Amino acid sequence: MGLYIGKDRTARRCYGFDEVALVPGDVTVNPNEVDASWCVGKYKFRVPIIAAAMDGVVNVKFAIEFGKLGGFAVLNLEGVQTRYEDPEGVLDEIAKATPQKATELVQSLYTKPIQEKLITKRIKEIKSQNVPVAVSAIPQRAEKFAKIAQDAGCDIFIVQSTVTTVKHLSTEYKVLDFKKFCKSTKMPIIVGNTCSYKTSLDLMATGISALLVGIGPGAACTTRGVLGIGVGQVTATVDCAAARDYYFKKSKRYVPIITDGGMNRGGDICKAFACGADAVMVGSAFARSQEAPGRGYHWGMATPHSNLPRGTRIHVGTTGTLKEILFGPARTDDGTQNLMGALMTSMGNVGAANIKEMQACEIIIAPSIQTEGKVFQRAQNIGMGK
Length: 386
Prior knowledge:
CATH architecture: Alpha-Beta Barrel
CATH topology: TIM Barrel
Number of helices: 16
Structural class: alpha/beta
Mean pLDDT: 95
Low-confidence stretches: none
Strand content: 15-25%
């Protein structure tokens, strides 16, 4: 069912975070008493917000600090941390580049081969601090890198690409068999990205432990502009959550979904959970932290693509510590800090004692929710007017 966009052609109406709002509950809960924890595989985390596998966000130091705060950050095995013994100079170069030269520079810096010994070294550095280790690789390198990662003590392995399907066709390279891969790997396997009901069901049936949802919504991603593909994160999350619930009803195996991208404020994160997410993955919000390796810059995972970049370097600035961004106290007025406080307060106000109850709260279509009554904030470029 959809709206006609021309003769005999319909299109479905989809929604993003700015177009919806959450309705307060008839019963409210003390925010300090809600349970926002979630599980993937045998691991339970009190923080359901994951730091994305992006070089401007996560390095060893950041992953350790994030793990100590109760969540996990994902190290990109395709990035500078595994290409350079000392990546600090490379990160300095990227930060100093002009906007016109940034993509070209990143492309050239990422031509240096990935060193397998550095994969092992980085994982062991994080593991030595007794925090969870999560890493990411593209499907073509997943089997090889997963074995190295597992031997080094990695806890969670993520297979990530722009669009992921079980039925990928190629004569140029070997296609990853997700079912075989999940069976042969002891670590929980998170796979992404997707935004559709049918593909979610297909991927869940392979034995994955969690699913990443979102095509092109990230702050540094240009997929939607370059390829024209993507689905608003509200609709994508609702569709994939429906697949999760149907799959659980049929198989009795619960596969969490993780809304990935498009959220840079607490309100967006709250809406993602209300739409059905079990956890969220965030990049730009954490790129602003003092601990982030990007020096106030953030770039998409597909920015280094040699032929068709689908990401760009953006300046996000440095606004506070990682602890302030996650737990406060907030020193900004726009919802970009104390993300956990925002989530727990929202849960309390809609009457949700846990994430499962948050997923059932009432959502309304409200395109004026970001602008109604905010004329002074917009005029002064403060708060919700930024």
